[in-house]
Design brief:
- Two copies of one chain form a homodimer.
- By secondary structure, chain A is α/β, with parallel strands linked by helices.
- The first copy, chain A, folds into three domains: 167 residues, NAD(P)-binding Rossmann-like Domain (Rossmann fold), CATH 3.40.50; 152 residues, Dihydrodipicolinate Reductase, domain 2; 85 residues, 2-Layer Sandwich (Alpha-Beta Plaits).
- Helix content of chain A is 35%, strand content 25%.
- Chain A contains 14 helices and 17 strands.
- Chain A has a six-stranded parallel β-sheet, sandwiched between helices.
Chain lengths: 441, 441
């Protein structure tokens, strides 16, 4: 086996496991290029074998029902624990570490309850234990705390780290619905379990805060030292009155360094609606972290779901793999040097397709909009909205136009044609629009 | 020298250099604990020696005017280039790498113009070349792209990565001032240079986009392939009309993967005011990144300034140091295991001091506010605002009170006393307020 080859075994093949295997299989070349490790998905242990005819999309002989083939398999370098729960997961992870395997887990309950034992064993055995996916899904907040902010004293963290609660509170705020209606909506959308206790009572957030604050303050801050209060007592009245005072109600996981020690608490809070954290809505997560050097920062993204969680799991698998093969740090520049560079086309600005804002100063006469609309139409540009504004000069007006998506080269043509129209008085302004609609970019 | 000891030499001792030395000297113990490396600040090369009596706060014999003592010094493990400019910096960095030293730089012009050569040499020599501070200051976006999102195809990036332009556009949007007035204000606050061309013409943002998009797409995307348009043509009219349509104007650095190739462009854009990126205001930076697995994410923080930049430089120094001593990955859990845990007090919730929102249902009679105010005053709680709301029952009203900061234990006492008042009809609601005012937390 070449030095860059790393064999990966998964324990568990639910939503996250399937997403992890999908990424490992489809992104193998890109991952090799970016990180210098060649990840082979070698074994996947699941509770039962798939029924005949079921599409599994895994390499041959990859599936097993025996987890010991993963944790004891002689060829496996990295074990990925995705079965959840505490006891069985603990036994399997312990066995893998004892065997000298690097381990990646997304299991926050395992860490919150038995993390200290696992990290101690991992340190003894000199293996990597990754847990980026355990908190805030795809948001790399663990890496930020473990690495990026190591030169900082963390002054405070305010986390929206339970997507269920954030969805419920956002619904209550935006739709002015009651707690129960919002909870039902969360359940319908799959954001809340049939028994939502762990989420709405703040326990899930407190588990995650235990992990984040332990890292931030280099001190073991167990779950049972965290003050916890859920969102079940928040009524639509509270939401409404808070709004009138300029506040939004969020379930916050808070850790702060104060003169009298570390505060660690989870409870609903009013926060100013103008703060960037107040804009973390729906099922999204956000961690607002203030360091003495870096100042205030926000990390925002999806805190749950198969693919976002798998994104974090795969990052840890790569780091475990780099540890396994050793000394690949310089390859992390992947793509920067010309030799490594991919053959990818770089588009000309002429081929860019966006919506546009246009402002034209035109003569105030009846035909003008028709003439302009004609030119735009000839150039394949259609108008989404238009308003007329008074200009300084009394015989001219400003037209402000928002277009639908159009090609830049068509807009260039339109500008040229419009500038030749007699009714267009002045040079005009064109600014591109980015809708930031992530399904649509 | 012990295995964990790493000697660090700085080239340049301006604003960032002084902040870096301050962190290295004051946070040495914390950094050792978090990262396993013991960073010795050994040499600092600056242009001229300080005049007698000037306070330098550096170890004895640390200062020199000869940069070769840093790049050729036999004891130096990590060289930190903070002199700026391209030619001299390139020569010194090259020499350091040739000598097998790990290098950290914050110099985006150096990378944008000669990065490919430097990375090639670093790869040959097997040394770490860190550049987190080159883009977006203290925000760990380079690490996110190099490591956290390696399993993702980056679909798009929309970056507000020039603080000067963002400050100017925010002033124009919020104060409705002209471009020139906003620019003068930026210059007065130190956010803009006397000659602001590099910033306001989008060139600085394009340098940074070259770095970000090269990493995101594993392809060398040089500055001269990026379409660049600055903000000088944006008038207060555009800001106002955009606002009327529900948009904010920002200078965006955009990279997108499309069917026809990679788009890379810097120009002013309208973005929806409800988007989280629109809330990146003043001199702050924000990068909105969408990956196929992770979905949409936002990284937000200070993109410039001595301490935020130093935060990123120090993170790279630590990583370079870990590379220098090798195999310390398992120590990154610093603080998680009980043995590593710091002796830090964990505050009781009773000692927490916050503002409070309270809602009480009370009898609608004249004395009520006086009675409640008396109780709160007796408990050292002062009222910041109060409003009266009609209740369902005709002889009661709701009082909504916002307090100044008070101790939780005093609030507990107040709750107990208030519940005994005859005028207080019902159980009442108390929710904590977090102002998220980072100078004040």
């Amino acid at each position: 086996m070449e030095k860059s080859e790393v064999n990966v075994g998964l324990l568990g093949w639910g939503t996250v496991g399937k997403s992890v295997s999908k990424i490992l299989l489809s992104q193998r070349k890109n991952i090799l290029k970016k990180s210098g490790v060649n990840l082979n998905l070698t074994k996947v242990a699941k509770r039962t074998m798939p029924v005949e005819g079921q599409d599994v999309d895994l390499p041959n002989n990859c599936l097993t029902t025996d987890p010991s083939e993963v944790v004891n398999g002689s060829g496996i370098d990295v074990v990925v624990e995705l079965i959840g729960g505490v006891d069985t997961a603990f036994d399997l992870v312990t066995q893998a570490i004892e065997n000298g395997k690097h381990v990646v887990t997304a299991n926050k309950a395992l860490l919150a309850e038995r993390g200290a034992e696992l990290f101690q064993l991992a340190n003894q055995k000199g293996v990597f234990l990754g847990f980026e996916a355990s908190t805030a899904g795809g948001i790399p907040i663990i890496k930020a705390l473990r690495e990026s902010f190591s030169g900082n004293q963390i002054q405070s963290m305010h986390g929206i780290i339970n997507g269920t609660c954030n969805y419920i509170l956002t619904q209550m705020h935006e739709q002015m619905t009651s707690f129960n209606v919002a909870l039902a909506s969360a359940q319908e959308k799959g954001y809340a379990e049939a028994d939502p206790t762990l989420d709405i009572e703040g326990i899930d957030a407190a588990h995650k805060l235990s992990i984040l604050s332990s890292l931030a303050y280099s001190t073991y801050l167990p779950f049972d030292k965290i003050y916890v209060e859920g969102i079940t007592k928040i009524t639509d009245k509270e939401i409404q009155y808070a709004k009138e005072f300029g506040y939004v109600i969020k379930l916050l996981a808070i850790a702060k360094m104060t003169d009298s020690g570390i505060e660690a608490r989870v409870h609903p809070s009013l926060i100013p609606e103008r703060s960037i954290l107040a804009n973390v809505s729906d099922a999204f997560n956000g961690v607002y972290l203030v360091g003495d050097a870096v100042g205030p920062t926000l990390f925002y993204g999806q805190g749950a779901g198969g693919m976002p969680t798998a994104s974090a799991v795969v990052a840890d698998i790569i780091e475990a793999g780099q540890t396994a093969v050793g000394g690949l740090v310089n390859l992390k520049t992947g793509g920067w040097t010309k030799e490594e560079s991919s053959e990818v086309e770089i588009s000309s600005i002429a081929e860019v397709k966006t919506r546009y804002y246009m402002r034209l100063v035109v003569r105030d006469q009846p035909s003008v909009l028709a003439e302009i609309g004609q030119v735009l139409g000839d150039c394949q540009i259609s108008i989404a909205a238009v308003t007329q504004k008074d200009s300084q000069a009394c015989d001219t007006v400003s037209l402000v136009i928002i277009t639908h998506k159009a090609l830049e080269k068509n807009m260039d043509l339109a500008r040229e044609k419009l500038s030749k129209l007699e009714v267009v008085e002045d040079d005009f302004t064109v600014i591109r629009i980015e809708e930031l609609d992530f399904d649509n970019t």
